[in-house]
Amino acid sequence: ASAIYRADYQAPAWLIETVDLTFDLDPAKTRVLNKMRIRRNPGVPAQALRLDGDELNLARVMVNGGGTSFKMDGSQLVLENLPEGSDPVELEIFTTCAPAKNTKLMGLYVSEGTFFTQCEAEGFRRITYFLDRPDVMALYTVTLRANRHDYPVLLSNGNLVDAGPLDDGRHFAKWVDPHKKPCYLFALVAGQLVAREQKIKSRAGREHLLQVFVRPGDLEKTEHAMNALMHSVAWDEARFGLSLDLDRFMIVATSDFNMGAMENKGLNIFNTKYVLASQSTATDVDFANVESVVGHEYFHNWTGNRITCRDWFQLSLKEGLTVFRDQEFSMDMAGTPSARAVKRIEDVRVLRTAQFPEDAGPMAHPVRPDSYIEINNFYTVTIYEKGSEVVRMQHNLVGRDGFAQGMKLYFQRHDGQAVTCDDFVQAIADANPGSALAQHLEQFKRWYSQSGTPVVQARGQYDAAAQTYALTLSQSCAATPGQADKLPFVIPVEIGLLGQDGSALPLQLQGTDATTASQTLVLTEATQTWVFTGVAQAPVPSLLRGFSAPVVLDYDGSDAELLTQLAHDSDAFNRWEAGQRLALRYALQAVHADGAVATDILPGDFVAALRDVLRHPTLDAAYKDLVLTLPAESYMAEQLDVVDPQRIHAVRESMRQQLAEALQADWAWAFDTHSATGAYQPDPISSGRRALTGSALLMLCLAARTSGDTAWPGKAYQRFKDAGNMTDRFNALSALVHSGAELAKPALERFHALFKSEPLVIDKWFSLQASNCDRGGQVLPAVKQLMKHADFSLKNPNRARSLIFSYCSANPGAFHRTDAAGYVFWSERVLELDAINPQVAARLARALDRWSKLAEPYRTAAREAIARVAAKPDLSNDVREVVTRALG
Ligand code: B3K
Ligand code: ZN
């Protein structure tokens, strides 16, 4: 397949006004009758109608009730002789497809005996011939017919207008969606399902029915999802004045799903992982994820569905904005400033460990890409998370109220349309004429067009005599594929100044009267200098507060400055960041040092500072846990030009062991004082306590490794057995496994026996073993053995991710082996998965994105493994694009 370019966009020559679909559902052969009313798009030169199709069997085509000539061009159905003129044309297309054989899980497929659909991005063409592009929006009527016994529940978008029995034990249901939509938002579900239901009244007084459908037996695990949905509805009304526009809003869960969830109009389909949650089977992280994904899909109802994308290059229009909205929702739900900061830190961690590497690697692309081969490869952390950061900068540049005004204008202008990223930022700027965003609008848009992570270098100069502090900020951005030279970005840099004792110094820009505690400098040139006056002492700068822009900050502050920030910075993000910077600094020194990895990498004053945080009387446990967590190996790797993954792993392990031993008494104190959390609640305070207790337990078990003490592993085993919730149970199990305790084996066996009928828990069981700390190369053989386990299946994406991805993508210390066996394993799994599900295979293929930075012997071995995959002649477009770019 060849590349598609954004610059080639053309408006559709034909429009589809209405679609009337009738399904006779049968797993082996489903019959689809598609009646459309279409018309020529006025203003676009007359063209033949070219409808997309994929793996369909075409039985009949009729135009205005009679036969017609047509031809096939590849997989497209082409009608060249449609009536001239502007009158609507009735088109009838009759096809069949085979849902039971659909292992790609795109289009119509069967999961555990239930029919589901997934149409985004280009799955609708696997259901019927259509103009499968988001700028063609139509009104849908859908009739579902199926055997009543096997498929008692028949769902589609919108409102149920008719239902009843048919001959031969069959029945039907007819659904009408009152809203125009692009076909990627079409959905149907048919099977044996039960629902939790809730009636709600909106602020505006309208009544709605909320439903969460799951398999019988899972109903008691849906309370949290339903609560999250109700909170989402209320939040969007309160924060943005956006109300639910449907009588009925449904969520349905399936265990076979390529990603997290899908925002089909009024009928969201979810991976069970993001719906089901009970205290005995789900961790605090799972509970938080359910809330944020339920929110995310619900928020798409306005940002994505009411206003959609003109073309798939604009994907971040809906995804970046909706991630921003779900992040804000989670923060508002979390409540306290400290809990907000914890959420912000978690989001930034994802950006740095996943998006920064993507933006520096062979798959780097702008937030609004210029070309792609397979659109499924562009549902990336850049489109989602960096896209959200770009929206967040707009929010911060115009302020919270200004942003709400901008959103209002966006809906006034574009409701019901398919638009572009430019249209969005234009609306935000136009609603805020005096803002820095409006002032620098054209330049700001470079965030959408230029890929790569900018580096901001900061240098400060204190003049004691003049009592001034001059801060010079310079920006640069390295070349990325297809983009050799970058122009300067608009970079909001929020700053504060600290005194040597850590107290906040007032900020007064030269030439202004006002003083503030914190200020946002807007860097637009390659280099700019700001001078602050009335600075009574040499300050410690607190730069890029709250991570005000998605950049790498290069500031060579002393260890002492960072220790001051770690102890005192009033910006919670930068306080955490100071600790991370110090840890990173020591880690990189140890990576570069000669000889064996030292056991005392961290200096005493840093360890003492971490102890102070751990023992701090008022900081939240969740925040402490983040401060005490060392930067990830993948983040360390990004700082280096040549990466030795084993050296990095050894350094991080040594640092962790040092913290475990040096703070042993403090960890014991933390465990003892936080381990009783009372009746289970997944709120931020109690989940923070559980997180800190879990970390403490792991540290204590690690310390026990060298001391030979068996008390803590014993305690961990006891806690694992007695825990009243999955968070405590799984943390205790993880502590045993990651510390290599002898009790890990019996605990794992017991865990499996306890939860063998809970697929999402069995996923955790696989994942834990695949992400185990590698001591002597035992992880790969264990993973290979687990592939033979009766519970393993490559066909189920969750299961494949839990074992294969956990090993290849999330366990660098075990994956990068000097004997290359990890890479060989990777290439075999990529090929095996590609024959089943190309989307999932292409994700796995990205595990070796950063191969060219690897030290030898890893580099050559990794390239050979990629070349072996690329040598296969019949690869999917998905995997072909990833490996071609990697070798590029
Ligand atoms: N919009 C879907 C993602 C669809 C992915 C298709 N390959 C989920 C979401 O972002 O909400
Ligand atoms: Zn989304």
Which geometry do the CA atoms define?
Answer: globular
Major sheet details? 9 strands, mixed
CATH topology title of the largest domain: Zincin-like fold
Ligand catalogue: (3S)-3,7-diaminoheptanoic acid, zinc ion
Going by CATH, what is the homologous superfamily of the largest domain? Peptidase M1, alanyl aminopeptidase, C-terminal domain
What's the number of extended β-strand segments? Answer: 33
The CATH architecture assignment of the largest domain turns out to be: Alpha Horseshoe
Mean pLDDT across residues: 98
Number of H- or I-type helical stretches: 28
What amount of the residues lies in strands? 15-25%
> What structural class do the secondary elements suggest?
alpha+beta
Distance between termini?
Answer: 17 Å
| Radius of gyration of CA atoms, rounded to a whole number | 28 Å
CATH class of the largest domain: Mainly Alpha
GO biological process, one term: proteolysis
Domain Peptidase M1 alanyl aminopeptidase Ig-like fold: 452-556
Family: Belongs to the peptidase M1 family.
InterPro entries: Aminopeptidase_N-like_N (IPR045357), Aminopeptidase_N-like_N_sf (IPR042097), PepN_Ig-like_sf (IPR038438), Peptidase_M1 (IPR001930), Peptidase_M1_dom (IPR014782), Peptidase_M1_pepN (IPR012779), Peptidase_M1_pepN_C (IPR024601), Peptidase_M1_pepN_C_sf (IPR037144)
